[in-house]
Amino acid sequence: MTGLMPRTIIHLDLDAFFCAVEELNNPGLRGRAFAVGGRPEERGVVASCSYVARKFGIRSAMPMARAVKLYPELLIISSHHSIYSKISQQVMERIRRLTPLVEQVSIDEAFMDATGLPPDGLQVARTLQANIREELKLPSSLGVATNKLVAKIATDVGKASARMNSSTQEPAGIDSQSLASYPNAITMVPCGQEADFLAPLPVEMLWGVGPKTAARLSDLGVTTIGDLAQYPVSELKRVFGKIGIELSSHARGLDDSPIITQSETKSISQETTFARDIRSEQALHQTLLELSTRVGRRLRQAGLQGTTVKIKLRWPDFTTLTRQVTLAQPTDQESQIFTASLQLFSQVWVPGKAVRLLGVGVSGLGPIIRQLSLWDETYEREHRLNAAIDSLWEKFGPGIIQRGGVKSR
Question: Are residues 225 and 300 in the same domain?
């Protein structure tokens, strides 16, 4: 609340963003079943899929091999993340033209605080949707409510309803082929009607209700958000602890979480899934070196150092392990990151055992602090070498120069 005025929060979701961008670059994709992501033979996953593809049961985050089984004629498009990122920035710029109170949640999703903007939240949402459609030729769906929780759910409900309504008309002046399969929904929940809006919806739509929590709620006879709102708070607290109180509050449409205009980077990591399981010690060590190099460079680009090095390892049966170690001093140097990750790797890997995925990350981040008393000649040489490599990568790309390989023990 701002004084006696209820907040006006708008949630924006770019409909099937990656696919919409690909259709702009290649109009021949319009009306076709296609997915953006990795190749099935390389264990790729679906990053995004067209709404035509969704009719066959294909969904984001699904293994591409499974998607192809569901629809053998599926067209697979490689991701173009640099293009998506550039267009995402253009979208966010248009939101910030209306208000500086913007929280970007992901590349294709954001919240904005439109409290007090004339004439009202619904018209602000319509104006924003029209600007994005007319200037960038992109479809989007929006939810308007008094808080982030309900605004997000409003977007999801609006998109689902639009998809079910085959008679939905396209915005005037837009090529019907370009937006025909997108929701382009706007859903507003008036102040005071939050609980009524949420009541008939499945409890899984609430933040914090995953499969396990939903199953436990089902055992209590709670399947809708309305059921949850009516369930005794004392019992929810007994079963779920403090989270039970939060669940009850959310079920009644209450949420006072603020718009966070800047997010603090908590960790920087890189990982790779191998096209085929790797058993070679040298190949696995080389991968750790490459991942450590990328992490170190990203740290330096961000002006950060970290104190905790972490590795992620996945076996062929999808069992995933993580291990971490805290360093004596923060670092942004890949040699130190690699040394730590190699030690962690040796603690869990059995020679000859196949590995599906490897990842390296650094957390405990903070700004770079130069404590000259801690610098010995080796560290200073390493720092200068990395600075030179970074400069070359910046000018000519990461393939121009690489560190030497590692030898197996």
Answer: no
